[in-house]
């Protein structure tokens, strides 16, 4: 299997809490030492590796004696993360140092990777660190991120980091060896080795519960991560971290194939400087777009500018421009649909409505 681990220049590796933190609440040092050795092998082969490491909340919760693994309230999670992150960073720095590698810590919030200027800044920092031969170790800045502005799971964070780093591949190491057609705890669950397209059937397979009780997103956030990564041309694998040399992907895993057509189009959409007009949307629609949805008329507030169907337009949320995409309607018809539901639209337009004002396949988040 020639998934990027063997071939890409930049690889992002995400490590889940259940792998990093033992039942006693401490870092599983022996396991982490073997992963650090695996990373060092890749480094010597000329590959640049970025680590996205979970575990701060689980580590801190045990240290502070907090109930529910520190996830009982946002305040507990923030205190646990602040306490656990320092131990997590220490473990990574020490074990990578044992391999002759220098570690660097980057803590990011959702806004750092969503807002264009900050995204470019994070991207430049990652690039510089990698150029200097350092292994960046990234986590969400849980101790300052509030509920509305946090990823809450490192799977999607890792996908965003992989895109920001211009990585060719992303490996999510977990306590499970990939995606099954239903929760593997259920009888008859079947393993999927390759996913070409993430459709509703694939999404329905993933349960959002975390069996270990330490992680946060379960399989649902991993499939969401696969959507972000593959849509930007980054191949992704979910693999078990419990095998020898997990990064070689020699053991069973699930590969999500990168979309080779979308990136250029999306990069073009995202990179263009002019737009025929702007659709202003409410906070709910902005959140839906950020989660990978289409722009529905129900969430539109106002339309500026003149544009035809197929023109590039900007989409602006309450805090400014969030996306660029191709208009499904010309400006006049789009304006008539503002705030409407799909079952009202045929009567307003006099023809069969399209699914959205901007379809998610023709939308690039900025
Ligand atoms: N369809 C599925 N395929 C595989 N695992 C699933 C599925 N649905 C739910 N899960 C659960 O998701 C868990 C992995 O998620 P999680 O515990 O959050 O991992 P991590 O800490 O590595 O992020 C698995 O151990 C399994 O119990
Ligand atoms: N940022 C959190 C990790 C949240 C998370 O996604 O956990 P996991 O599902 O184990 O990868 C922490 O460090 O505890």
From TrEMBL:
PUA domain residues: 277-358
Key word rRNA-binding present: no
Residues annotated to bind substrate: 54, 142, 154
GO cellular component: cytosol
Reactions the enzyme catalyzes: L-glutamate + ATP = L-glutamyl 5-phosphate + ADP
Cytoplasm as UniProt keyword: yes
Highest rank taxon of the organism: Bacteria
GO biological process, alphabetically ordered: L-proline biosynthetic process
Lineage of source species: Bacteria, Pseudomonadati, Pseudomonadota, Alphaproteobacteria, Sphingomonadales
Main function: Catalyzes the transfer of a phosphate group to glutamate to form L-glutamate 5-phosphate.
Gene3D superfamilies: Acetylglutamate kinase-like, PUA domain
Positions contributing to ATP binding: 14, 174-175, 216-222
Protein name: Glutamate 5-kinase
UniProt keyword terms in alphabetical order: Amino-acid biosynthesis, ATP-binding, Cytoplasm, Kinase, Nucleotide-binding, Proline biosynthesis, Transferase
UniProt GO MF annotations: ATP binding; glutamate 5-kinase activity; RNA binding
Enzyme class: transferase
PANTHER family in the record: GLUTAMATE 5-KINASE, ISOPENTENYL PHOSPHATE KINASE
E.C. number: 2.7.2.11
